[in-house]
Every structure is written in structure tokens, then in C-alpha cells.
What does this fold into?
Amino acid sequence: MTAVPFGRGVRIAGTGRAVPAEELTNKDLEKIVDTSDEWIQQRTGIKARRRANDSETVFSLGRDALLKALAHSGINASDLDMIIVASVSGEMICPSTAARISEAVGADEAAVFDLAAACSGFLYGMNLADTMIRCGRAKNIAVIGVEVLTRLVDWSDRSVSIIFGDGAGAAIFTADPDPSKGCIHQTMHGDGRLWRTLYHPKLDRDVPAGDEANPIRLGHLRMHGREIYKFAVTRFQEAIREALDATGMKVDDVQQYICHQSNIRIIESAIEKLQLPADRVYINIDRYGNTSAASIPICLDELLEAKTIGPGKPIILVAFGAGVTWASCVWNM
Ligand code: UT7
It folds into this structure.
């Protein structure tokens, strides 16, 4: 799916992030599961991740990230037309986390829904927000990426428990009279044939034929990491190449690459294969681990806070995740 710029422009009015206070280092994990700091750092690039306590939830982290984004944006919660919460770890399926957050922040008139596209969720939401605003159907849309995946992992499963972390990031998108601002290219992809590579079975009937022997307990994430890794390396590079080609840019024409923080080796492989300027590829997986839908908006918020990104050359955002899903966005600040 490719969108050419049409209608009015869109800008990011404000961003915010909220992460749990507890930092769980690789050394801490060595005490919980059969692993080592050295293995985790070498194979994933992760040194630590945040873990939610009992009172920190998808709802509370998402709300706090949104409140910060609203404060930075200067936009009133009551002027939000829509709140999209990208998450696969919400406490309740009904109502949506977005509904509860809208009440908490006073966005009484906003349309509210959750979006389950795993690690691609925030980018799916950002692409939808841009399109809705650009065509005049909405003026202000909040997109929140938030996960508490540490509650879904089996801590004895070392292939899953070491990579995920908790957190939230939010962005407020708003209409701008300059049509060149906002998304100038976007893709949203899926391949449902690969859903079995990462899923969350609650009952026996959820477990697909052939995976019964997988010893991980029901109620916890099951991940075939190698298979996702292979898919991700290929799709990640394709998505960046496609974004560059579609917009007629060379790798140096991009001010910043914001990649889903899944595994540093997947990002490094793209840097090497596509010859990306490494100093313009943001990395924070060492501090947060893989926060799924929260990973891109946390990166975005840190980069804006540090004033590393701003008006000028476009940025490219790219993500992939369970489903499987993958998405990209080329954005003019
Ligand atoms: O965000 C989107 C969703 N998820 C992903 O993107 C994850 C993508 N996949 C990955 O990042 C990697 O596949 C993992 C980090 C999950 C695993 O790394 P890997 O290099 O693919 O390891 P592996 O599963 O192929 O295992 C290699 C070896 C095995 O030992 P043997 O059989 O070679 O003796 C594993 O038992 O490493 C062992 N191993 C570990 N050792 C210490 C696997 N996990 C660990 C561990 N600590 N945590």
C-alpha cells in the first residue's frame, strides 16, 4: 500500500513516553533463567529492560505517555478526534484500553479503539492517523504504542524472557496547512501464513497442530525466534529499500532511521547490506529491550527531546512483528 501526498499536511505536535521504574539487567536475569549477560548482549544487543510492577499497566503507562505528549503538544485532550492504542498486551479486551485512557485524560469526544499489529502497531496507527487527517476526516489524533509483555512471558523460557521489556510512547498528530509535511510514503504489510512464529495461546485449542510438543506453558508467549529473525532481516531491508526507491532518495538523504528495536543484529544487518549511515540509525535496545509496539514511539520521543531530529530531510520509520506484520513510513518533519 503506497500513499502519495494529497490533501493537507500533518505534523507531530508532541510526543511523550512512560517506562516502568524497575530496571531488570541481564545480570538480574542470570539469577532467574539459564542465560548469561554475555550471550544476551552478543545475540541481541540488550543490556537491560524495564519491568512493570503490579500497579503499572498497559492502561497506566499508555495514559502517562499520552499526558506527556499532550503537554508537549499544546493541544487539549478535549480536542482529540481519535485515540488509537497499539498494543497486544492490554489488561482487558473489552472495553478497549483507548476507551479507558480517553476517560482518564478527558478526551470525551474522541473515537477510541485498540490496534493489534504487535511490533508494527504504532506505525500502522501513525500511517492511519496521517491518512485520516490528510483527507480531512480528523484534525487531531493520538497514537499510543504500549506493552507490558513481561507479564506474558514464561520466565523459565530463555529464548523469550530475555528479549522483551515494558514501556509506552505516544504521539499527537495534527493538521498542518503545508501539504508537504507528514507522511510522503507509507506501507503496511502482513502475511498471516506466518502467525505461528509468535503467538499467545490461552487454551489447548489455541495451539496449532505441530506445536503441541513446544513445552512452553499456556498463557505465555510462544516464539520461534530463528524463523522470525530470518523473516525480519529480509523484510526490514526490503522496506527501507522500497521507501528510498519510492521517494527517490539515497541513503544519505535521510536525517534519521528509526527502526523497531527487536534485535541489534537485525538492525546491523540492514546497516551493512544497505550501507546506511550508522550514526543516523537510532539504537536504544540496550536500555529497553524489545518493547514491541512501544519501541518506535519511545525512540521518536527520545530523538525529539534531544533535538536530534527536526525540520529538514525526511526520517524513515520501519517495523515488523507478530502476525506477521511489517510497515514503513517516510515522514517530513
Ligand atoms: O519483535 C518482533 C518479534 N521477535 C523478534 O524479532 C525476535 C527475533 N529473533 C531473535 O531475536 C533471536 O532469534 C533470539 C534472540 C530470540 C534468539 O537468538 P538466536 O541467535 O536465534 O538463538 P537460537 O534460538 O538459534 O539458539 C542458539 C543457541 C542454542 O543453543 P545450542 O542448541 O546451539 O546449543 C540455544 O539453546 O543459543 C541457546 N540460547 C541461549 N543461550 C543462553 C537460546 N537462548 C539463550 C539464552 N541464553 N537466553
User: Anything to note?
Assistant: The chain has a mean pLDDT of 95. The chain has two domains: 9-179, 183-332. Residues 35, 39, 43-44, 119, 158-159, 162-163, 198, 225-226, 228-229, 232, 262-263, 290, 292, 321 surround oxa(dethia)-CoA (CB under 6 Å).
